[in-house]
Amino acid sequence: MSLNRRQPTKKCPISVNPRSSVSHKYQFPSALKMKTNTSTYIQLSTVTVAFLVLFNHTLLKLVQDWAIDDNFSHGFLIPFITGFLIWQKRDQLTSEKLKASNWGLLIIFMGMLLHIAGTAGAEMFTMRMAIVVTLTGLSFYFFGSKITISVIVPLAYLMFMIPIPAIIWNKIAFPLQLFAAKLSAQFIQFIGIPVLRQGNILQLPNTTLEVVDACSGLRSLTSLLALSAAFAYMVPLNNLGKWLLFGSAIPIAIIVNIVRLTVTAVLARYIGPETAQGFLHELSGMVIFIVALVFLYLFFLVLKKLGIDKSL
């Protein structure tokens, strides 16, 4: 009797076609992510174009003011400094998840109302503030509250690019002119030069100097405040140290301006009145501003030496 042995079934190797549905199953999330990113980029591009169209006149007038008014020429630097401050936080920002916040729509709406109110009242300061408010709202809406709060200081820093309204500027500048003229006259007399002060006019034996708006020190004060704010934000100090460093710009700007006026009077007395105007006068302004930056850095070193750092 013979037994019919069943032949063992041969196992067929399974070949996976890279173009099969299984492959598509694992590629789907990447495709979805790419589609989402594309949609986000389209939204950002659309909003950017709409923003530029809406604030076109405001932005052009702002840049024009930076170009023609030396008091606010530092405005050209502010957007770049803001970008640098945000770039410094790139590692922290990339680790955060994008979670859009609808609160951004409310902030954008507030920015629109500011812009409409500024346009209706022909108030450029309000229209320019609307730019900062709207950008903050857009950040909330697209990137979420967590990321926006992380960069809220750089966003607020954009306010330094907005010129101070003339009515406020004049109320600050003229008292500063009188104050600078008074202290300069005292220093000039102290070093032995006869001087008679009448308001903001300094009468020397051989010439008369007028402490005009440009010599009030407000121009260097606004520029130094803008730079000190960025510097204080970046340095490793605690909150108290940062505020002290930022606030130090006020006395530093006033002191160096008085030194400039005193040096100008000395040069005008012993060299000639022409040193109080023209190229030499402008050069002295740049030199004195550099000196102010050096004083600001020295004050930072003092704060650091005193132990007012992040460890406190």
3D structure, described in words:
There is one protein chain. The chain is mainly α and 312 residues long. 68% of the residues lie in helices and 3% in strands. It is built from 13 helices and three strands, in the order αααααααααβββαααα. A three-stranded antiparallel β-sheet has the order 1-2-3, with helices on one face. β2 and β3 form a beta hairpin. The longest helix has 34 residues. The protein is elongated, with a radius of gyration of 31 Å. It starts with 20 loop residues before the first helix and ends in a 7-residue tail after the last helix. 27% of the residues are buried.
Explain briefly what this protein structure is:
Helices cover 68% and strands 3% of the residues.
Provide the fold topology.
Blueprint: H1 21-54, H2 56-68, H3 78-87, H4 90-94, H5 103-120, H6 124-143, H7 145-150, H8 152-157, H9 166-190, E1 196-198, E2 201-203, E3 208-210, H10 218-234, H11 239-247, H12 249-270, H13 279-305
Antiparallel strand pairs: 1-2, 2-3
Helix pairs in contact: 3-10, 5-6, 9-12, 10-11, 10-12, 12-13
Instruction: Please describe the biggest sheet, giving its number of strands, its sense, and whether it closes into a barrel.
Output: 3 strands, antiparallel
Radius of gyration: 31 Å
**Helix/strand-derived class?**
mainly alpha
Percent of sequence in beta strands: under 5%
Strands, total number? 3
- Poorly predicted ranges (pLDDT <50, ≥5 residues)? 1-36
**Helical percent range?**
55-70%
SSE pattern, N- to C-terminal: HHHHHHHHHEEEHHHH
Spatial shape? elongated
What is the averaged pLDDT score?
82
